[in-house]
Design a protein that fits this description.
Helix content: 55-70%
Number of helices: 8
Structural class: mainly alpha
Order of helices and strands: HHHHHHHH
Distance between the termini: 28 Å
Number of strands: 0
Strand content: under 5%
Largest sheet: none
Radius of gyration: 19 Å
Length: about 170
């Protein structure tokens, strides 16, 4: 069975804006992804090294402002919802498969190394910038935050600057 075509990106962007607006209206907060990943990392530290968890000021401050389990945050449940929604979207569109998306000039191993390295750098940047593309940039711009606008320009500006160096890996 042939997979369905992707949605028009402009229409998808419009729908994303409506989801963001509904999220702010219903919850009083914007969307975010890095906060959910951070919650999972904190939960891991709490479970694997409880003595370190109990003796570190950063974790004590986090625990004080977020009592209970680190996973007891709406961002964690948002991430679970995104994964479930993505799975159902893949099923409906007939796109469920294990495959590695890559350009013709890159080997699978190199592609995986770049993906992990890029993800780690973006995760580090999201923590230094107090939010990722969705949490800081999209949600920040939705409430006309100057920091959100600066974040969006920084993310896309740096992507355009770096893309030139890696473009030959993706095009033939």
């Amino acid at each position: 069975m042939k997979p369905k075509a992707y949605m028009n990106p402009y229409l998808a962007g419009l729908f994303l804006g409506f989801v963001l607006l509904a999220t702010i209206y219903v919850t009083g907060r914007g969307l975010g992804a890095s906060g959910g990943v951070k919650a999972v990392a904190l939960y891991g530290v709490e479970q694997v090294a409880p003595e370190h968890w109990n003796n570190t000021e950063y974790y004590a401050n986090y625990q004080q402002s977020n009592p209970g389990s680190p996973l007891n945050t709406w961002l964690f449940y948002e991430i679970i919802g995104v994964l479930i929604g993505a799975f159902f979207s893949g099923v409906i569109s007939n796109r469920i498969a294990l495959k590695l998306e890559k350009g013709p000039r890159i080997q699978s191993k190199t592609r995986i190394i770049f993906a992990v390295l890029g993800g780690a750098l973006f995760g580090l940047g999201s923590q230094l910038g107090r939010g990722c593309t969705s949490g800081s940039a999209l949600s920040g711009m939705a409430v006309m935050s100057f920091g959100g606008i600066i974040t969006m320009f920084a993310i896309f500006g740096s992507a355009y600057m770096v893309a030139w160096f890696f473009r030959k890996l993706w095009i033939s």
